[in-house]
Amino acid sequence: MSKRKPSRVHDTLIIGAGFGGLGAAIRLQQSGHQDFIILERSDRVGGTWRDNQYPGAACDIPSNLYSFSFAPNPDWSRTYSGAGEIFGYIKGLVEQFKLGPALRYQQDVTGLRFVEEQGYWEATTAAGDCWRARAVVMAAGGLANPGWPNINGRESFAGKVMHSARWDHDYDFSGKKVAVIGTGASAIQIVPELVKQAGQVKVFQRTAPWVLPRMDYASPDWARKLFAKAPRSQQLVRDALFWTHESVALAVIWNSPLTRVTERVASAHLARQVKDGWLRRQLTPHYTIGCKRVLISNDYYPALQQPNCKLITWPIDCINERGIRTAEGIEHQFDCIVFATGFDVQKTGTPFPVQGLGGRELAEEWQGGAQAYKSVNVSGYPNLHIIFGPNSGPGHNSALVYMEAQIDYAVQGIEALLRGDHAYLDVIPAVQTQHNLELQKRLARTNWNSGCKSWYLTADGFNATMYPGFATQYAQQLARFELADYRAVDRAAPAARRAAG
């Protein structure tokens, strides 16, 4: 496809129109910066919550905390809102903050390159467009692309195949024999819904998850009215939820006496809902809680005990045209296989080629595990700000608390660039190296690095995903953009190099 005429050089280019991209646009706008463009690969905003609309999809963080502090919603219908309601909230941000003129749809970025001589980034898209900007906010999202398991014969199945992140709402499950591969966060929401519709459901479990009860209630009308009339009351609820979740860090991030208490709560939840001793043993985890993602559900265990549902714990040997063969030699035949296998999280690469100073490739530098400075910036890739970059994952609190801190830090960096009229600001390599050395030392003492396999870790056990501390600590490190941590290159320098060349 031939390239169209490149855009003019904007101040900021935002890649992705999910929570991260729209949040960055709003905070730039509120800081007085209007010259930004948002590139979205789809025809709608929403990111993860646009794509994950499978039956039962919902957030496992209360809605009053899983929303932006600068854009409260007094009308959440439940404690834990469903995916449709969250998607509606995201779409509402576009209208509330009038972001429509900045959005460019069907702009799937295929490459990002820093043009050092000119001091700007250049993004190319599958549509043949070329966009330029002095700074980039990369908000493509870690949970954007479906993760498919490496199972022999996966593509040979002759029946219906779907992934939780690409749900086919037109498919009729009535009377069908359905396999669900995976027992993670999406699976435990999908299985109870499928059991209501399908003729038979078999759930293939590799590792039993820790599951805690879900305290979910409909929001009373009086509370919605109070939040609308007195926003401070909703902020107080948000604060209470924040500190409650913050305390959970003591149980799931580090191995402490509270870890044992939380494991006992989860075990009691299992014992209360599953009376059969053998099934209960199959569903009992054998690793420290927190090592993998902790799940919450009231209806997953009951669904597994329905007459039309069966838990399969034998490892999968292969998939063939008829169904799934397990390691003991039994072939299970299905009409449909649902892959509830999460996402292709970029722990050792990038969603598209990113080229920095001197032609260096970010994917090559991240082959052994992604690293950044405070999750947001990477040395050698000036003026590039990543939302949910390396080691920004929470294990206990709202992802949006972490995201807001990243966004505000990125906005500070962009302001420093524009206000100082610099060509670029680049993290000093030694600063980034020291930051990550300390980070990995802290991670070594967490439950995530305690020995189990999870999507938090690379194949060789490097934790490029999680932050080893409280949300308050994470936000504090990003509270102030320290110019001394960056190499500032004046705009005159690239011009002088061009003249010399």
Automatic annotation (TrEMBL):
- InterPro entries named in the record: FAD-bind_Monooxygenase_sf, FAD/NAD-bd_sf
Would I find Oxidoreductase among this entry's keywords?
A: yes
A GO term for molecular function: monooxygenase activity
Q: What is its EC number?
A: 1.14.13.-
Report if keyword Lipid biosynthesis is assigned.
no
Q: List keywords of the entry alphabetically.
A: Monooxygenase, Oxidoreductase
Q: What is the name of the protein in this document?
A: Flavin-containing monooxygenase
Q: Which organism is it from?
A: Isoalcanivorax beigongshangi
